[in-house]
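Q: Hi! First time asking for a complex rather than a single chain. Here are the components, and I think there are two in total. Is that enough to go on?
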Amino acid sequence: MRPQLSPKSRWLGTGIALLTAIVALALAGIARADTGNTTFDEANRLFAEGRYADAAVAYETLARRHGWSAPLLYDLGNAYAQEGNVGRSVLNYERAHVLAPGDPDIAANLAYVRATAGLPIPVRPWHQTVARFFTPTTWTGLAVLSLWLAGAGFLATRRWRARRLVYPTAVAALVGVMSVAAMVVLDRDLNHAVVVETKSAPVRVSPFDTAASEITVSEGQDVSIIGHHGAFLRVRDGQGRTGWVQSTAVQPVVPRQS
Amino acid sequence: MRWNKQARFRLAAIGLGVAMAFGQKAAAAGANPMADISPSEIALDQAAELRVDAAGGHAPALPAVDGLHFQRTGRSTEMTAINGVVSQHTWILYQVDADRPGSYTIPIGGRTLQLKVRPAGARGASAASVPMAGFRPEPDESAHQGALALLRVVLPSKKLFVGQAVPVTFKAYFRAGTQITLTGAPSLGISAFTINHLQDEPRQSVESIGGVPYRVATWTAQASAAMPGHFSTLATLPIVARYREAARRPAADPFSGMLDDDMSSPSSLIRSFMKQSAFGNLGDLFGQEHQREMTLHAPVQTVDVLSPPTTGKPADYNGAVGRFDVRATLAPTTGTTFAPMSLKIEVTGPGNLDRVSTTGLPSSATWKTYPPSAKVTDRGTKVFEQAVVPQSGGRLQVPAVSFSFFDPDRRQYLTRSTAPISVEIAATPGGVATPSANLGKSIPKVTEEPATGLRPNHFDEGRLVATLLPPYRRTWFWPVVTVPWLALTILAVRPRERAASARIRRRALRETVAQHRMAMKRAAVAGDSVRFYEAGAAALRERLSEAWKIAPDEVTAAEAAARLGRDEPIVAILGTAERLRFAAAEPDASALAGLEEIIERSLDKEESRT
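A: Yes, that's all I need. Here is the structure of the assembled complex.
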């Protein structure tokens, strides 16, 4: 005969199970991230010896095998910058910036490479600037946590008539909604951001190789995707000009398949 | 005797030719040393090799030196090809050993050679001295005279230490007139030994054994023992020999015909040397030609390999054996914080460089370091290059790097250290020097843009993520978020449902009990004792079944007595009701009012409890 559990005990058991699952997921993430520093050190050593091409290969290999991190992408950007590969340098700085938006070194080197290459510095509207204050992961975590708290507060106020939870619940709900809004803005921003990887790419008036090109985007330049057709992407540059470029000429800041 | 003009001219020409020949010989004698001895310093239990010029087939007579013994070990002919011109030089070889320590003078061929003999076991300045035990004299001429091919191994010592590198020489003798094809490299035949730096192509010379000229191929290599123990060499060399049986050939210059080849190439020289017979192909016309695959075996030698002592072993000792010096340099001579610099650690000296290793400068609060790379230069120096990154500005010092090794001559461990290097480090342009405590975890937190150049690399790998995609674009996200939400909602709704159903059940119970109470009151007024007991007992069963969590039919007088005690009035009421139900008796109706009060009180009491 199964023992009869009180509702309070069942709540406690459920909470413990959820907590265990979250902790297990977190531990799995930590275990996955703990890959040792040997290869990274080796890549840095190659960089320190001035073997930038070899260092870039080592960083790329490390990323392919173990995943990406802001320092790894930053160092990879440095290796490409030292090698003179502006496109990949900017691309990897941008990727590093996604993971560590507050890192001053990434911003400084990105600005330096752009200035050295004569690239325009992208001007972002205020809501994108705010959205880029945190990483997508941080915004997501903030949104989930806030909405969880708001939901729990709502249930508590309904069930136990806990009026003192009304304001915290409202604040949590507001933070949750704002976080979701930031997620949406950031997602639209990152989802469309690409960097020109080739030396220069003609921007054509229509998605055909024979179409005329009025402007050209340079290696390392940031553009946004606003449409696609076949092997062409419709892009908008920082000055609002639009046109079609070959999809092979650009690389997404956030790749679909990592 | 009168000479005619033509005869005088001929005589003058011959005289001029003879004079020129003697002049050339004299010039050659002046250009080449008449004798040399190697090494010039040996231990008493070792021997040196004396080479005496045998130009013209005659060697100068050996002097008698008190305390020294000379033993002829053979003849060596050297060929050299310089700018396509081949020259030949023949030496007579002697083994020299001494009776007692001291300095000896050997006057020979117009030169005076010096040989210093130190006591046995004493460490000398020369690393190339040859212990007498390992010095193999010329093969027994009587035993080997006429043999097609011979192999000898010269191992300089019969006692080695694990890891100690010693030179080893393989000498293969091939009788002149034999065509030899080498099908492999010489091997020492001891699995516990490793052979390094074995020459691809042997040095060649000509020596005479018992008056029979032999072509000699000589390989030099470095042998190193990998494990302690007592070993015997089983040196081998695989060859294919082609020779003619019963071919009679007069002595001839073994190098005739070689000038047909391009002598500027050493490999062609060796090929020609190996393939040419004394008479070239002329000998093919006579006798029967044979071809044999064979493996040459050298005489067995025994070697004792000892382990370095365990006492006195430094903590940083990692197997290096030899005698080394170590020095370090830093480039560039000035630096900038976080800008990598190159620390070069050079280990030089006689010994086994393959076992020389160092972890270099360890990371510290001042220097972030990386594992060094190593390479061996042509000069026999092992160079470790280590990237080091200064973590702060100012006058910094690269600490001394120590290196320990075992000296087999002294039989003790030694530790050498590099000199500390001072270097001026400027702060990062546009930034500030990072406090050492933040090394590897943070980056310079500066807001201004760098004036020039890229900011340095980050050294902490950071938290790795599998993808840059935000979590909400990954498949696991929505189940992870929504499933707990659903669970919470279900958990929140179910108690409410249960509460609602309990309320309904309680309400129904109240109504049922109220109906029974009403029937009981009506029966009391009417004096119908049977109906009174039935209604009262039914009300009690409904109410008590709720309180006791059992079915109403299970609420009996016995159950009530067990739970409440037999003195409880309702037990009697329930008992009377059961008797009426099964025995059809007529109860007394006079006390119904009192019983009604008891039942009402019990019902109220139970209702107030629930």
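A: Chain A has three domains: 11-119, 130-191, 197-252. Let me know if you'd like any chain examined more closely.
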